[in-house]
Every structure is written in C-alpha cells, then in structure tokens.
C-alpha cells in the first residue's frame, strides 16, 4: 500500500506553507522525500493508498491521567459519551496545561485500559485544524494523524533531532516524552543512561558524539516519520472524528469516480456492463418464455371448457366453471358424485372395520357427520389414509367423525 507521510510544519503561512514528506510503497523503504507546497505533494490515486499527517514533537504535550470508572466503554467514541469524555479531560488537564482546555485538541492512547492510567496527547486545536485544512484544500486529505514521538516503550531511547546549532534531545520511555536542547549542560543535567540506544540526524551526529562520548546511529527524519506512521496512534478524535469519517467517505467517492473515469479501468467497466446487459437480456427472455407458457396453459383450459361444454360462452375461472358444469350434468343424468351421501357412505363402509357402525348420521351440504363409531387410534389412522386416497378428508373430534371431499372448507 502506498503511503504519503507528511510532517505538519509548526509555522503556517497560508498557501505558501511547505510540507516535508516521504513516500513509501511498502511501509519499509522510502521512495521519495522532499519539501513542497500542499498542491505539489504527490497525488495518491489508488484506493488502498493513504496520507498520514505527523504532528511534530514540538507541537505536543503529554499527560498521564486516571479516568473515572465506567467512562471508557467498548466504543467510547461511538456510544454517545464523547462529549462527557471531553468534559472530563478538560477538568483533569485544566491545571496541567498553559493554554485553556477549550483551545486544545486532546487525543487518547490507542486501546486505553479502563482501570489504568491513560496517556493523553494535547496540541493547539486551531493550529492542527489549519494544517489539516491546508492539505484538504489541496486535495490531499489526511486519513490518519499520528504523533512524531509517543510514550509507552519500556526501554529508554535517545534521539537527537534537528541540526546544529538548533539540535534537540528526545528521550522516550514509559514515563513520557522529554525534549531538551542539545547542549553540554542538558546532557550533564539529564544523566542519560549509558546503555540507552542513541540515534541522531546527520546534521547533529558529530555534536551528539562529542557530548555523549559514544558513537551514534544515523537516522534520517523520514525514517522517524515512517516509524510513527506505523504506530497504533490516531490523533483524529473528538471534533476531528467526524472529519475523518467525511474524509473516508470522500475517499470512497474519489475511488468510485476514478473507476468510472480512469482509462486503466476501461476494460473492467466494459466487462461489468456486458455482464449486466447479458443478465438483463436473459431475465427478460426467461420472463417472456414463462408468460408465453402460462398463456398457453390458460388457452388450453379455456378450449377444453368451451369444447366440452359449448354452452359456456364466457370463461372467467375455467376449473371452477368446469366443476360446476360437471356437477350439473351429473345431477341431470342421476349419476352419483363424490359429494353425494350415497358415495360417501359407500366409501366409508368399505374402509370401516367389520362390526363397527355409526349410532347417528347427519348430512349437510357436502359433509357427513356421524357419532358412535368408536375407532381406536390405529383404526382411525387407517381409515383416514384410505379415505384420503379416495379424495375425502377425515376429522375426528371425540366420538364424532366428519367426512367431506378434500379441498372443501
């Protein structure tokens, strides 16, 4: 994934502000580095690429606080407690910061523990918003905002940044981030551990070796920013959280527009369009075939009805009309039908066990009801199965048995 890592300058001068940056395609090696105006920064075209803004150490202060129990939920930035959390931080840090809390932007460490002290980063809110807006107006919105240095490592680490005569010493350990000028007095006063790793930028390496009296490891600023971009920190919290979501949706929108317009995606667009058209034509052809088959079946039913019963001139519901005509024909000829009492008694008598009969029989409409047959569960199941094969439905309620043609309510 291509990552553009931009260091936010401490001094902003509007459109003439320049940003130092490094570009990496694999997160390990730097392919480009320079200092340019926002509009001249490399353009990220791939959907998987991102811009990471680095807040320099001189813009941040670090504070260790203990939050009230229950304040940090599983999703404390999504469960509606953001305003309450911000108000608590304002109260806890009011006496620790030189500026008013309302003028500061706060950010909590990644995955803070609810029952342990939490690191909070603070910086000037107006400066941070102005720097991010310069990038956004140039079409380079930041996907993440990370600190140049952050506390949390257990082993002491020393880094010398900048160039002589403005070089500075950065000490990182579990107690926080310490920044001092690189002078003989600060080296002697701080009493840095001899076993601590020491690195320095090329412009301050010689002075650092003289003052610390030991070799140093050369580390460019870009390598430091690359390591910062790979940390779990993201300072885009509280009021910047919604802006980050907006930037994410905008990034998806840009990727979608690039897919629709970029020449390299032309073949893919044609393939998707061809697939959609094929599916559309296939669905329409299948629907036309099904409609034609349905119309053919309706026509066959209509022809069968009118051919068998010429007296039927208008066909509304062919199956119902045919059943009605057959019943009328049977009644006129005196032939018994399945709904007649004689037919039901004949069917019932052929399946009822010998020696058992109804004490009373009632017949109304198409339903025969009888009492006193006294069938066992096994006998009732056998009678029900055999009558079902002859087109009759059986319902038992106590000693009452009801028989009627299937399909009747």
Plain-language structure description:
By secondary structure, this protein is an alpha+beta fold. The chain contains 10 helices and 17 strands. The strands form 4 sheets. A 5-stranded mixed β-sheet has the order 3-2-1-4-8, with helices on one face. A 5-stranded mixed β-sheet has the order 11-10-9-12-13, with no helix packed on it. The mean pLDDT is about 85. The two termini are about 70 Å apart.
Set out the fold topology:
Blueprint: E1 3-7, E2 19-24, E3 30-36, E4 50-55, E5 61-65, H1 82-93, E6 104-108, E7 118-124, H2 125-137, E8 144-147, E9 157-161, E10 168-173, E11 176-181, H3 184-190, E12 197-200, H4 205-212, E13 217-218, H5 221-229, H6 239-261, H7 266-308, H8 318-333, H9 341-351, E14 360-364, E15 367-371, H10 377-389, E16 392-397, E17 400-405
Parallel strand pairs: 1-4, 4-8, 9-12, 12-13
Antiparallel strand pairs: 1-2, 2-3, 5-7, 6-7, 9-10, 10-11, 14-15, 15-17, 16-17
Helix pairs in contact: 7-8
Q: What is the count of β-strands?
A: 17
Largest sheet geometry: 5 strands, mixed
- Distance N to C terminus: 69 Å
What fraction of the residues are assigned to beta strands by DSSP? 15-25%
Q: Return residue spans where pLDDT drops below 50 for at least 5 consecutive residues.
A: none
Number of continuous helical runs = 10
Rg result: 43 Å
Fraction of residues in helix: 25-40%
Average pLDDT: 83
Provide the structure class: alpha+beta
For the largest sheet, list the strands in their spatial order: 3-2-1-4-8
Shape: elongated
* Helix-strand string: EEEEEHEEHEEEEHEHEHHHHHEEHEE
């Amino acid at each position: 994934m291509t990552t553009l890592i931009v260091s936010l300058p401490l001094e902003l001068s509007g459109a003439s502000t320049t940003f130092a940056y490094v570009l990496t395609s694999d997160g390990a090696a730097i392919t480009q580095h320079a200092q340019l105006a926002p509009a001249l920064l490399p353009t990220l075209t791939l959907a998987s690429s991102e811009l990471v803004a680095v807040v320099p150490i001189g813009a941040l202060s670090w504070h260790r606080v203990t939050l009230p129990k229950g304040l940090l939920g599983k999703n404390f930035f999504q469960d509606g407690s953001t305003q309450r959390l911000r108000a608590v931080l304002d109260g806890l840090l009011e006496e620790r910061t030189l500026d008013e809390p309302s003028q500061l932007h706060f950010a909590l460490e990644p995955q803070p523990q609810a029952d342990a002290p939490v690191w909070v980063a603070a910086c000037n809110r107006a400066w941070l918003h102005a720097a991010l807006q310069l990038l956004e107006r140039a079409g380079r919105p930041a996907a993440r905002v990370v600190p140049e240095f952050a506390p949390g490592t257990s082993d002491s680490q020393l880094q010398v940044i900048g160039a002589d005569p403005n070089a500075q010493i950065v000490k990182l350990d579990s107690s926080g981030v310490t920044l001092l000028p690189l002078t003989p007095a600060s080296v002697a006063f701080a009493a840095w551990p001899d076993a601590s790793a020491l690195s320095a930028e090329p412009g301050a390496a010689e002075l650092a070796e003289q003052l610390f009296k030991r070799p140093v490891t050369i580390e460019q600023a870009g390598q430091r920013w690359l390591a910062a971009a790979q940390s779990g920190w993201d300072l885009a919290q509280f009021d910047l959280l919604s802006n980050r979501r907006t930037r994410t949706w905008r990034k998806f929108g840009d990727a979608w527009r690039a897919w629709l317009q970029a020449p390299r995606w032309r073949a893919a667009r044609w393939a998707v369009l061809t697939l959609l058209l094929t599916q559309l034509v296939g669905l329409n052809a299948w629907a036309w075939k099904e409609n034609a088959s349905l119309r053919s079946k309706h026509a066959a039913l209509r022809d069968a009805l009118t051919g068998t019963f010429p007296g039927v001139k208008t066909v509304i519901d062919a199956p119902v009309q045919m059943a009605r005509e057959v019943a009328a024909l049977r009644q006129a000829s005196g032939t018994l039908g399945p709904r007649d009492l004689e037919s039901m008694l004949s069917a019932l008598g052929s399946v009822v066990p010998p020696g058992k009969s109804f004490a009373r029989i009632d017949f109304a409409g198409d339903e025969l009801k009888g009492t006193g047959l006294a069938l066992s569960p096994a006998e009732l199941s056998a009678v029900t199965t055999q009558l079902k094969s002859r087109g009759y439905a059986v319902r038992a309620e106590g000693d009452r048995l009801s028989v009627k043609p299937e399909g009747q309510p």
